[in-house]
Amino acid sequence: MVFDLFILTAIGFVLEIFAIKFSGAVFKCAPSAAISLLIVFVAVVRWNWWGLLTVPFMALGVYLGGVNMDYFDYLRAVYDWRMYLSSAAGLSMIGLNSIFFIKFKTKKIINNMGLLLIMMAVDYILVCGVQMLIYGVSTIGAGEMVYYSNLDEEFHDLRLIGEFGVAYNTFGLVALGVGGFVLRSQGVLCNAKARILEDKKNAELDREFNKFTIEEGDCSIKEEKDNLQVGTEEVGEASEPKTDEAE
To answer: Are residues 185 and 205 in the same domain?
Structure first.
């Protein structure tokens, strides 16, 4: 489990930094989730509640992608502890999928395209809604969050940009949908623990089958040897001269 989550987190963390920078530059916005939606979703599918261990690192990827955003200084200013907190809180909502995976079995939900699409859509709405709510609450009492940009020489409302940056998380929704179905076709989107137990059971069955086949083969070889020996003895007896009768 640890190695599996480590690989998922490492890949997602790097991709999230570049995805936030890319989508922010293209849409001139402050997205709060991109590849992290897919990574956390996959982690929860594979390990249920344990998959939420990826959340703090994915939120960190969002933050680092934002503060390293090129050209748009007023967008970089949005990414602070508030954005980190709201991103982490929103992504944590994906953990609710574990309730349904445990109750109705992960395999049954993942193999049903309709249920899978509904789950992805609900996850996206919950993540964006909670992110917007937490960011709004965290800015209460912060006064006017206005930033003067030297780039366009205009004032920008950071609170407004931060709260409605979730509207541009569509890149993350596309990544979740496309990536999720691709990974499902590759057998990655599954309950890892159940898959390990299933593989172990199949391996034991294969060993039993191979053992039975070998034993059956040994019995057949022994039977053939016995038959061959009996045949040889009969041939030998038939070829012996009947000396008594000749005398």
So the answer is: no
What is the sign, positive or negative, of the torsion defined by CA atoms of 109, 110, 115, 121?
Answer: positive
**Domain boundaries, position 224:** 197-238
Look at residue 155 and give its three-state secondary structure: strand
Q: pTM of whole model > 0.85?
A: no
Are 69 and 87 in the same domain?
yes
Crossing angle of helices 170-185 and 35-47, in 10° steps, is: 40
Same domain? 74 vs 184: yes
Token digits of residue 2: 């640890």
Q: Specify the DSSP class assigned to residue 148.
A: E
**Amino acid in the structure at residue 49:** W
In tens, the pLDDT along 36-89 reads 999 999 999 998 889 999 999 999 999 998 888 877 777 888 888 988 999 999
